[in-house]
Every structure is written in structure tokens, then in C-alpha cells.
Write a structure and sequence with these properties.
Blueprint lengths: L2 H7 L3 E6 L5 H14 L7 E3 L8 H14 L4 E6 L5 H13 L4 E5 L20 H11 L3 E6 L10 H13 L4 E4 L5 H13 L6 E2 L1 E2 L5 H11 L5 H8 L5 H21 L4 E5 L4 H11 L1
Parallel strand pairs: 1-2, 1-9, 2-3, 3-4, 4-5, 5-6, 6-7, 8-9
Helix pairs in contact: 2-3, 2-11, 5-6, 9-10, 10-11
Bound molecules: flavin-adenine dinucleotide (FAD).
The site of flavin-adenine dinucleotide (FAD) has 24 residues, from β3, α5 and α6.
Length: about 290
Amino acid sequence: MKIKEILKIRKQGISFEFFPPKTEAGKKALQNTITALKKYNPLYVSMTYGAGGATQEKTKEAVDMLLAETELEVMPHLTCIGAQPEAIKSILADYKEKGIENIMALRGDPPIGVEKFDFSAQDFSYAVDLVKNIKQAGHFGVGVAVYPEGHIESPSLEKDIEYTKYKIDAGADFAVTQMFFDNTYYYELLDRMKSRAIDIPVLPGILPLLDVSKVRQFADICRATIPSHIEERMEALRNNPEEMEKVGIDFTIKQCRDLIKNGIKQLHFFTLNKPAVIQTIVEAIF
Ligand code: FAD
């Protein structure tokens, strides 16, 4: 089923994002994650593609695992980096044959270690080009990424929303946000979208705040502000990782509760393939 339709029918629920494992131990961890989390009957589950250097073949394998082990709606991610139209056509044909109905269309980040990567030299320069291509194939619903604090390369929030609108006008059906830790940024993004008459579901992307130093590195690259009060509290617990994690999970639970209190009842979790943390959060919020 198209995720757009699922989101219309099920007004409250959660979705889970996984990453493809590279090792046998990683495969086992993913399997355990799926087994532990499928009981929450997620709206859908998604699998990242090529992020952090993972190979694209691994995504297909992990998608096959999800399809074999669940009845859930599975959405693979696809990126522009290195993608040629023929290869995209063949991936889409394969996914269609497997019964997949939704694709998350992304540009992708520059390959690690490559400075000044030339996106314009790619067959697909921006996510919007991939959205158009997938929509032309006719069969798939499409999700795209949006950025509560603006994408890191965007010169301004105005430009950011202008480029976001290109993706929606090209046919994106729904969006998932980059992680954020202050809900104000998410509410402001919704306002910006509304002011541009962008009317699609925008699922908040929730990253559990576990190891604050690690999240800080990632957050800096992604332009996501960690509120200083929580960063300082967690940093002070650097020598007590268990307590630090507890404080972080508690923060994430409060973040989700605030969203729900404000009428946002469909939440997307970046699971990090760590079921226990996600279970604690989900059990606490619904
Ligand atoms: P785009 O929408 O193409 O935007 C990229 C930049 O270009 C932005 O600054 C935008 O403002 C600008 N821009 C867009 N159109 C134009 C234009 N016409 N002219 C000039 N500038 C323009 N990465 C992965 O590699 N694999 C994944 O699986 C993955 N999953 C993700 C899931 C979520 C929920 C999110 C939020 C991100 C994910 N990413 C993933 C990261 C994503 O690839 C990066 O954030 C990337 O830098 C931008 O991707 P995009 O699709 O938003 O790009």
C-alpha cells in the first residue's frame, strides 16, 4: 500500500528506519531488531541506502530480509550518488516485482573524503531529479527528506523551502525530517511549509539521544542543534555511560510526548538497529 494512504488511514503510529548490516553479527542484530519491533505494528519500515559508505547491494539484501520476515510495508531508500538511469530502472523493476510500493528518494551525501564533490556532473544532481524519474516509472509512492533547521548546504531557510517545494511539485507524497532535538524547529518547518501551500504529511525523524559526543559530531554535519541544557547534563555523565544513556532516553521520551501533545501522532524513529532503546521509548509514549 502507498504510505500516503497508510498515513491517511492510521492517524497515530510509528515508523522505523534501519540500516543495512555489513557483517554476520550486524545481520543478527538487524534480525533481532525486526523481531523485537514488528509487534508495534509500524506504519511502515525503511532501509537506508549507501549512507555512511554502506554498499547498495547490502540495502537490497536487507530489504529482502525485511520482506521475508514481516508483512510490513517496506520502503527502500535510493540516492542520486553514482546512480545511472539504467541502474535505477533495473532497481525499480526489481523492487516492483517484489511488491514494493514506496521509495525514499534522496540525493545522498558526498563520498567520504571527497572534497567539493561535483553533484552537477551526476546523472541525477538533486533528489528532485530522482523523484521525477521514479514518478515517471508510475508505480511508486515517494518520500523525501526535509530539514527543520535547513539543509547544511542551504544558504537560507527561504532557499531551503524553495528547493523542498521543487521535490513536492515533482510528486513527493510525504516527507521525513532530519533529526532535531528542539521541537520548535519542527513546528517552524511546518509553518514554513504551510506558508508555501505545501500540504503533505511530514513525519518527525526521532534520533534517540544516547552518547552525546557521538550525536554531537553527527548533528554538526547535519545541522541539528542539541539544546545546551541537555548536552551539558549528559557531558557531565561522560564517565557514567549508563546514566548518560538513561538521561538521553528520558529526554527523547519528553521530546516525543511534546510532539504528541501538539497533535503530531505519527513519528519516525531512526532505530540505529538498537531495539531495546526504541522499545523503552515507544512503551513510554503511547
Ligand atoms: P536535495 O533535496 O537534493 O538537497 C540537497 C541540497 O541541494 C540542499 O541544500 C538543497 O537546498 C539544495 N538544492 C536542492 N535542489 C536544488 C537546486 N535545484 N538548485 C540548487 N540547490 C538545490 N543519505 C544516504 O546516503 N542514504 C540514505 O538512506 C539516507 N537517508 C536519509 C533519511 C532521512 C530521513 C534524511 C533526513 C536524510 C537521509 N540521508 C540519506 C541524507 C541525505 O542524503 C543528505 O541529507 C543529503 O545531503 C541531502 O539529501 P536530499 O535528498 O535532502 O537532497
